[in-house]
Amino acid sequence: MEAHFTTAQARALIPELLQRAEAIVRMRADLADAQVALRRGEQPAGGVAEVKSLEAHLQEAIDWFAEHGIDLKGIAPLIVDFPGELDGEAVLLCWLEGETALDWYHPAGTGFMGRRRLPDSR
Q: How many C-beta neighbours within 10 Å does residue 120 have?
């Protein structure tokens, strides 16, 4: 894994990530409501055209992460990894939906279960 972000670079993207995350959560909920209506045989608010529009906008929002070299690991909940390096070791700087800052990382080989708090000085 090639390091792309320093901790400072990743943290600088957090304000924009938070805005995009809020939009994704809103679209995710609207899409879930529409899918429930369709399963019930009902017409969702805005009709099928609105559902297709939501799907397209959600995909655009998701694509932003890859375009910036950020790994979006899941959308329910949102889990984001910034490939980076810490003390010469390849790590993933990790953000989870609901967090307001980037304070966690995990070694590349352990995954989310190996999540650790970033040292204060980073």
A: 6
- Other CB atoms closer than 10 Å to residue 6's CB: what's the count? 15
d(CA 91, CA 73): 15
- What is the distance between the alpha carbons of residues 110 and 25, in angstroms, rounded to a whole number? 27
* CA distance linking residue 36 with residue 62, whole number of Å: 22
Nearest Cα to Cα of residue 77 among 29, 11, 109:
29
Alpha helices in 1-108 (DSSP H): 7-12, 14-39, 47-67
pLDDT tens per residue across all 122 residues of the chain = 455 899 999 999 999 999 999 999 999 999 999 888 888 888 888 888 888 999 999 999 999 999 999 999 999 999 999 999 888 889 999 999 999 999 999 998 898 899 999 997 55
3 state SS of 99: coil
* Tokens 């979006």, located at residue: 72
Q: Considering the entire predicted model, what is its pTM?
A: 0.86
